[in-house]
Write a structure and sequence with these properties.
The chain contains 8 helices and 5 strands. It has helices spanning 15-26, 33-41, 45-52, 54-69, 86-95, 105-112, 126-141, 155-171; strands at residues 5-8, 29-32, 74-77, 97-102, 146-149. Helix 4 runs parallel beside helix 5 and helix 6 (105-112) crosses helix 7.
């Protein structure tokens, strides 16, 4: 039995990409909350937001996280807004090794600017939107057991750092 790891962080911090590699390295099962919601609903995130609204999406996210937090052996890549909900924060903090991924607004901008499936980033001034949203959410992302910058460290080093901290966390 291995304790689950969860990755939190703003959109475009690399939760999915890094999560898949980390899961492979550590022998954990990779799950992505956005992908699971899309599969279960049979719709893209952008369609769920458009048809049912953000509140309905947050409810789906909360229910799914409750299920996932009850399981071990997972690498859970989360949607960037999962930390807005106090119950989700508690659930993540208490049941997983919680890792926050960060990046500077400019790096985020470059990573997300061509995407079409992030309804909350639809804006005439994308950079400003990113800066404003990041500032509002900063305190919530700070809850990780470990915080890693994904734009100043190589992916290999980031994975090594998380692995080392995870192993220590599990031994303690
Ligand atoms: C959201 C982030 C998205 C997705 C939804 C809302 C957010 O996930 O869950 O568009 O509120 O930050 P990613 O962080 O994987 O882009």
């Amino acid at each position: 039995m291995k304790k689950s790891i969860a990755l939190i962080g703003f959109m475009g911090t690399g939760k999915t990409t890094l999560g898949k590699r980390l899961a492979r390295k550590l022998g954990l099962e990779f799950v992505d909350t956005d992908q699971l919601i899309e599969m279960r609903q049979g719709k893209k995130i952008s369609e769920i937001f458009a048809d049912e609204g953000e509140a309905a999406f947050r409810q789906m996210e909360r229910e799914l996280l409750g299920e996932l937090c009850a399981r071990d052996n997972l690498l859970i890549s989360t949607g960037g807004g999962i930390v807005l909900d106090a119950r989700n924060r508690e659930c993540l903090k208490n049941n997983t090794f919680l890792v926050t991924l960060t990046a500077r607004p400019g790096s985020i901008y470059n990573r997300v600017k061509n995407g079409k499936n992030r309804p909350l980033l639809e804006s005439d001034d994308l950079y400003k939107r990113i800066v404003t949203m990041m500032a509002k959410r900063k305190k919530f992302y700070a809850i990780g057991h470990l915080v890693v910058k994904t734009d100043t460290m190589s992916e290999g080093k980031t994975i090594a750092k998380i692995t080392e901290a995870y192993e220590k966390f599990c031994e303690a």
